[in-house]
Each structure stands twice: as structure tokens, then as C-alpha cells.
């Protein structure tokens, strides 16, 4: 039997295919925020590198009306992008993330069926020269057996 990957690991794996040529020849540090040492999630050295921090936000299951042996699972993953370079550089990072998610939108039918780029929130702080966006990426598994 094939081992099914966690949604968080799938998103990180897709982001690891980063193309530096699309972001001024800079690849950010990509990490699961749970693997970062305490307080490092808040304090990165943004002068040294950009960061893409990933964490699970929500896990929802929908049961169809007729088939109670299956559920549709929707897992929301937050992708938190931070840079101190510029707003235009943040836009390049966003474009690369969108590209990677759209390339992977059709799943492999084993680990997931669909990956959807949902929302973007601007959390930039211009007084601190912190340019930051968070994105919601939804990983959907259709007709997952629960029997």
C-alpha cells in the first residue's frame, strides 16, 4: 500500500521546485514553521535571506448526502512570505508561488486531487521595511474512503 503524504509536506515539496530565475536569482528559505526553533518564526534575519514559512490552518471534511463511506477533505495551508528587499521583490516571490501552485493544481489521485490558490493577505509593515504576504492554499482530496 502506498503511503499517503500529509498536505503540508505536499505543499512544501511543490515549493521546493522553486525557479531562482523568476526571483532575481534568489531562492528563499522554505520551511514548515513547526520545525523552526522557538521564537525563530518571529525573528528571521531578513537581511540575509527571504523566507517562505508554511503551516496548516484548517482541516475540513464534507460528507456527501448519499455515500457515507466517503468524505471530501479540504486542508487549508498558509504560505507566509517575508522579505526586506522591496515590494517589487515580494511581487516576484508571489508570482513564483502562484506559478508553482498552479502547475501542481491537478493532483496525483493518491495524495490529493486538487490544489487551489485561494486568497492573499498583505501584512506588510512599511515602517519596519517588512514586506509580507500570506496566501491560503487549499489541498482537496475527493471521495476519501473512511470505511
> Secondary-structure element order, as H and E?
HEEEHEE
Which geometry do the CA atoms define? elongated
CATH class: Alpha Beta
Unreliable spans are none
CATH superfamily, called what?
A: Phage tail protein-like
The rounded distance between the terminal residues' Cα atoms is 16 Å
* Strand arrangement in the largest pleated sheet: 1-2-3-5-4
- In percent terms, what proportion of residues is strand? 35-45%
Helix content range:
10-25%
Q: Helical segment tally?
A: 2
Summed up, the domain count is 1
CATH architecture: 2-Layer Sandwich
Number of strands: 5
Estimated radius of gyration: 17 Å
Tell me the structural class. Answer: alpha+beta
CATH topology: STM4215-like
Biggest pleated-sheet summary: 5 strands, mixed
Q: Roughly what is the average pLDDT, rounded to an integer?
A: 87
Features:
147 residues, 2 helices, alpha+beta, STM4215-like
Describe, in plain words, how this protein is organized in 3D.
The protein has 2 helices and 5 strands, in the order αβββαββ. The chain has 147 residues and is α+β, with helices and mostly antiparallel strands. It has a single domain, classed as STM4215-like (2-Layer Sandwich), CATH 3.30.2000. It has a 5-stranded mixed sheet with strand order 1-2-3-5-4. The model has no long low-confidence stretch (mean pLDDT 87).
Please outline what is shown here:
The chain is an alpha+beta fold and 147 residues long. Helix content is 18%, strand content 37%.
Task: Give the topology, please.
Elements: H1 7-15, E1 29-32, E2 51-62, E3 70-83, H2 87-103, E4 114-122, E5 131-145
Parallel strand pairs: 1-2
Antiparallel strand pairs: 2-3, 3-5, 4-5
Amino acid at each position: 500500500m502506498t503511503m499517503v503524504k500529509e498536505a503540508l509536506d505536499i505543499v512544501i515539496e511543490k515549493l521546493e521546485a522553486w525557479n531562482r530565475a523568476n526571483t532575481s536569482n534568489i531562492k528563499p528559505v522554505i520551511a514548515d514553521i513547526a520545525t523552526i526553533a522557538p521564537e525563530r518564526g518571529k525573528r528571521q534575519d531578513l537581511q540575509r535571506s527571504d523566507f517562505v514559512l508554511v503551516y496548516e490552518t484548517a482541516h475540513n471534511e464534507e460528507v456527501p448526502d448519499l455515500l457515507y463511506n466517503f468524505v471530501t477533505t479540504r486542508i487549508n495551508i498558509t504560505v507566509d512570505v517575508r522579505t526586506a528587499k522591496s515590494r517589487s521583490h515580494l511581487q516576484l516571490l508571489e508570482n513564483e508561488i502562484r506559478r508553482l501552485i498552479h502547475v501542481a493544481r491537478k493532483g496525483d489521485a493518491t495524495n490529493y486531487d486538487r490544489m487551489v490558490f485561494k486568497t492573499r493577505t498583505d501584512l506588510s509593515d512599511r515602517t519596519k521595511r517588512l514586506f509580507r504576504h500570506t496566501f491560503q492554499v487549499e489541498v482537496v482530496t475527493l471521495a476519501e474512503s473512511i470505511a
